[in-house]
Amino acid sequence: MTNHTSAADPRTDHTGGTAPAVDGTMRAVVQEAYGTVDVLRHRPTARPEIGNDEVLVRVRAAGLDRGTWHMMAGRPYLLRVIGFGFRRPKNPVAGIDVAGTVAAVGSAVTKFAVGDEVYGMSRGSFAEYAAVLERKLAHKPAGLSFEQAAVVPISAGTALQALCDAGRLQAGQKVLVIGASGGVGSYAVQLAKALGAEVTGVAGTAKLDLVRSLGADHVLDYTRDDFADGQHHYDLILDIGGNPSLRRLRRALTPTGTAVLVGGEEGGRWTGGFGRSLRAPLVSLFVRQRLTMLASKERGSDLERLAEYLAAGTVVPAVDRTYPLDQVPDAMRHLETGQVRGKIAITIDDARS
Predict the structure, then answer these.
(1) Closest C-alpha among 156, 112, 159 to residue 133
(2) How confident is the model at residue 273 (pLDDT cuts 50, 70, 90)?
(3) Are 227 and 178 in contact (CB under 8 A)?
(4) Maximum pairwise Cα distance, the chain
């Protein structure tokens, strides 16, 4: 039977010994209001306390993506209404994707022990320590660096769910990925190829080489190519962060094809891209084609499904840049430019050593 560190002793370090006494604080990027990059502050804050079913992770790296931007901005406002915090974030520490070593475990945790290298979805990863539910955590594949592992969980998990769960992908099908150079898109291209699909990726001119390097069979430049030109049709379309009309998506589908709306960066302040996503299932009631939205879930089991592809090198995280913890605002500004190729990683050094 494996001995686990109790949640009552969160100061055990990753070697299994006892770390020097600390004051119970940690460095973190904190936001106490919604707004622009200026709401992100790098300062000391209390280390998280873990519940019986949680793991305390000593963070080595964290991932930054559009979801983190939405949580910073508090937009669309629907996010606030559904429980993320109406006037301010419920959890003031920013960041979700995390990779690091287990520092302590709750009394009900059975899958992880102190010292394990792990990655998953946390309650705030832009910090020296993060609390993670056991069911949202997995063992880190040995071949990945912490920076690579940290940019996997949300984006790769979303891509997997979009292709396999919502999209019901089958080998031999033709797949179109709109937004193929972004976080989710870069994984969707690689996973679709690994699952036996013929993949066409849509991206901007400057990122077409990246999409090709990910394994796409064909690439389209959205500044000059029309994926809905009526000449090519796809069994499955993943619309990631775009905003084409449902009519255009249907025009590019086969008569019984499926379109999965993964996200959208346009639309009103209240629903953003969700408005179009909510209409999609209604349209499906009256046509042979299937249009659906993806409400992705944070699941450690997805990371276990992805492990074989990551370990084999079939799926490789595309890390655009890395930034240290105190430069998260600069990382967010780079994300806002729209020039990111793949993902951004945040590295956390050990200032206490």
Answers:
(1) 112
(2) low
(3) yes
(4) 67
